[in-house]
Design goal:
Blueprint (H helix, E strand, L loop, with lengths): L2 H14 L3 E2 H8 L3 H13 L4 E4 L5 E4 L12 H17 L5 H13 L3 H12 L3 E2 L5 E2 L4 H13 L1 E8 L5 E14 L2 E8 L4 E6 L3 E10 L10 H13 L2 E7 L3 H8 L3 E5 L5 E7 L2 H11 L3 E5 L1 H16 L9
Antiparallel strand pairs: 1-3, 2-3, 4-5, 6-7, 6-10, 7-8, 8-9, 11-13, 11-14, 12-13
């Protein structure tokens, strides 16, 4: 075994075991105690804080350092790291999901192809579900890390994209950022053919071709990638487009409904609200919380829904307490 290979083997042993008696560690590496001491000094020169204790029970251990040193892991540990990071990314753990994707991109970049295939196979055997128990299609590790790297390096991407009906199209984009939403990951990107911003679900992206061509970052609409993804999803799944004129200041309405729709200031202290909703009952709750007069422009079904709520509350009011 060469000196470099032996030093790496020593580092791996120290990282996997809290404390090694000197004699046992030398036997594992098949070297003399003197050679072991030289190898330990090489690790210290590289910045690894190896602690040594003398005497009959003396030995070596790797102490916590001021910064994270390079790690040496075996094949099984590498696959475990990839799967663990994927689980964190998929689960949307608060505050660390995006960091997990960045770390995953770094690990997969140096992962042998055979181990990448193993990680993908194991991940496919452990399907991801949402809180309702529905199984979602897995995002390929290669897709996730390639897109994350392109966002980081500001390089254009070409890929195939499958729509919800299974049809496939070719896309060439400037990738802006990855956004976790619910149980999915989305890419916010500027579509060069459409000359407009688009949102792409990662589990529908196939055949990625990195271009290595840098681009100048653009300003995302609204300046908030997460809000842009959320609004796009709402528009996609919503059954109703709601348009109202509300006799209330725009700032007041924005405080209640800005994340659900677009508020435009009008004359005389009024405003226009355009929003998308899956149910009209939620719109009724919003209008009730505002407590201001309003006019319904769209959809006609909202007028009937509000009339039903008015009848329900009216019938629940004691006759003697109703205003004259």
């Amino acid at each position: 075994m060469s000196t470099s290979a032996r030093v790496l083997a020593l580092l791996s042993l120290l990282q996997n075991h809290r404390f090694w008696p000197g004699g046992e560690l030398a036997d594992r590496l098949e070297v003399s105690p003197r050679t072991l001491r030289r190898d330990v000094e090489q690790l210290r020169d590289l910045g690894y804080p190896v602690q040594a204790s003398r005497g009959v029970g003396g030995g070596y251990q790797l102490a916590p350092g001021g910064s994270l040193p390079p790690l040496v892991v075996d094949d099984e540990e590498a696959v475990a790291v990839v799967l663990g990071l994927r689980r964190i990314a998929d689960g949307g753990v608060g505050g660390v999901a995006e960091a997990a994707v960045r770390a995953l991109a770094k690990v997969v970049a140096v992962l042998p192809v055979r181990l990448r295939r193993t990680a993908n196979d194991l991940q496919a055997a452990l399907p991801r579900t949402d809180s309702g128990g529905r199984v979602h299609r897995q995002v390929d590790i290669g897709v996730l890390t390639s897109v994350a790297a392109a966002c980081r390096d500001r390089e254009t991407l070409a890929f195939g994209y499958r729509n919800r009906d299974g049809g496939e199209s070719s896309r060439r984009v400037e990738p802006h950022t990855l956004v976790p939403h619910g149980s999915q990951w989305y890419l916010v990107a500027y579509d060069l053919a459409a000359a407009d911003w688009r949102t792409f679900r990662l589990d529908r992206i196939v055949d990625i071709t990195p271009s290595r061509r840098p681009f100048r970052p653009r300003e995302i609409p609204g300046g908030d990638a997460a809000a842009y993804v959320a609004s796009g999803i709402v528009r996609t799944v919503a059954r109703y487009r709601v348009e109202l004129t509300i006799d209330a200041p725009a700032d007041r309405v924005r405080a209640e409904a800005d994340q659900w729709g677009e508020v435009t200031e009008l004359e005389d202290g009024r405003c226009r609200l355009v929003m998308y909703a899956e149910t009209l009952d939620w719109v009724a709750f919003l209008l009730g919380s505002l407590g201001a007069p309003f006019e319904v422009h769209d959809p006609p079904e909202l007028v009937d829904s509000l009339a039903g709520w008015a009848k329900l509350f009216g019938n629940s009011t004691p006759e003697g307490s109703r205003p004259a």
